[in-house]
Amino acid sequence: MGRVHICYAMYDKKGTFSKYVGTSMTSVFENTEAPVTMHLMHDSTLTDDNRKKFEALAERYGQEIKFYNMEDLVGDVLGGILDIIPKALTDRFSQAALYRLLAGAVMPKDVRRLIYLDADTIVNLDIEELWHEKLGENGLAAVEETAATQGNPADQPLISKGIVARDRYFNSGVLVIDLDRWREHPEFLTDGLQMLSDNPDCFCFDQDILNFSFAVAYAKLPGRYDVFVSVDRYLGNEIRAAIYHYAGAVLDPFNAADAHNRLYVSYFTKSPWCSDDFVMRLFGRMYEIMDSSRAGSREYLTAAAGRRRIFLGSAEMRDKVERYFRIKKGEEYKAVIGKDGTLSVKPLIQMMKENRGALFVLFMDVYEDLKMHFQKAGFEEMTDYVDGLQLMTETEGGTKLWGGDLFSSL
Ligand SMILES: [Mn+2]
Asked: How far apart are CA 271 and CA 60, in angstroms?
């Protein structure tokens, strides 16, 4: 068991997803002395440029990487699978969720044990530790979801229906697999797919397939091997030797004070994806954003010119808004949100109709939900009403700025 085998699965429609896989791989290489072979399951969405970066990454650390084009290798199997699953499910999941389940079919026979890692993981420990963990009777080891979320697991149809016990349901982001067992029992895949087809409300796809077959007898790994960043951040835990799982939209490079963001970026910057080209594209995007915010200011200025402004929000916001927006004579702030945080839409629209011609500036987090009501009543955004929280800086209490989308777009 000298050489560690790790696989990732990837579908990279825009060519911007490879950097996540590359960053996770970088974190593995940074923290181990063991020889590692990375097995990357991909398809035709892997660009030449990204492929070269993966090769450069492995070479930089004196490690090995192998590529598996799943469309070429098991295209017929994939096609057959997609016929079994309801359309609604395939729309919500990338094909890559299936690739990992086919690892046994495409890996060389001498790969008998395999670690699977999600692309949104950071391995902040020596992967050899995980490699030597004991597997369950059915040849699988994983972290129970309740442990991964430190006691805050999401509801799962598989559990509420009594198909899998709560204390057996595991997270599929980090797995240690006895690959021979998968090869000997390929029926786990068809059984799982049939279950998915019968239970279309299951929203975790490959995770549900795996739980359906393996929840009963897998070995539970310590929680540190699959730490949900969302929960860990909420609990204010310090960074430790762990595998961090950035599940959901939790990476926000704009928030540099956050330790989990810094940890992520510390590995990203050591990867070949953090290149001069990347930095220039980042600045380029920032330029576009700053320039287009001028257009936003102009639109507001134009909409407000010569108009009476009526500000709408909670009583607590009143002083702040009056100060920041320099409310003039004849203008007013109406506390339309009750003390209990509720807002009555009908009276709000009635009041707006009675004051037609005024510009309504709203300070409420249900802004997006109100739009369709306003539209029905004949009010137009940026002409009749604007989102006041978008006009305030974040430090003043305006809408939170989010860097996750910017990072993912590069
Ligand atoms: Mn994940």
From this structure: 10
Q: Quick one: pLDDT band at residue 89, thresholds 50, 70, 90?
A: low
What is the whole-number distance in angstroms between the Cα of residue 228 and the centre of ligand 1? Answer: 9
Query: What's the CA-to-centroid distance between 264 and ligand 1, angstroms?
Result: 14
Residue 190 backbone zone (phi > 0: left; psi -120 to 50: alpha; other: beta): alpha
The segment(s) of the chain belonging to CATH 3.40.50 are: 294-396
Query: Which CATH architecture is the domain 294-396 placed in?
Result: 3-Layer(aba) Sandwich (3.40)
Does position 391 have pLDDT exceeding 90, yes or no? yes
Eight-state DSSP code of residue 16: -
Looking at domain 4-274, what is its CATH homologous superfamily? Answer: Spore Coat Polysaccharide Biosynthesis Protein SpsA; Chain A (3.90.550.10)
pTM for this predicted structure? 0.91
Q: How far is the CA of 86 from the centre of ligand 1 (A)?
A: 22
Relative orientation angle of helices 345-354 and 367-376, to the nearest 10 degrees: 60
When pLDDT is cut at 50, 70 and 90, the band that residue 398 belongs to is very high
Is residue 23 within 8 Å of 8, Cβ to Cβ? no
Euclidean distance between CA atoms 278 and 291, whole angstroms? 20
Q: Look up residue 195 and give its amino acid.
A: M
Using CA atoms of 160, 162, 166, 170 in order, give the dihedral in degrees to the nearest 10.
-100
Tell me the per-residue pLDDT of 255-310, one tens digit each, with 9 for 90 and over: 999 999 999 999 999 999 999 999 999 999 999 999 999 998 999 999 999 999 99
Distance 34 CA to ligand 1 centre (A): 25
Dist. CA 295–CA 9, nearest whole Å: 41
In angstroms, the CA 352 to CA 377 distance is: 9
Confidence class for position 205, pLDDT limits 50, 70, 90? confident
Summary mean pLDDT of the chain: 94
Nearest to 251 by CA among 410, 114, 46, 138: 410
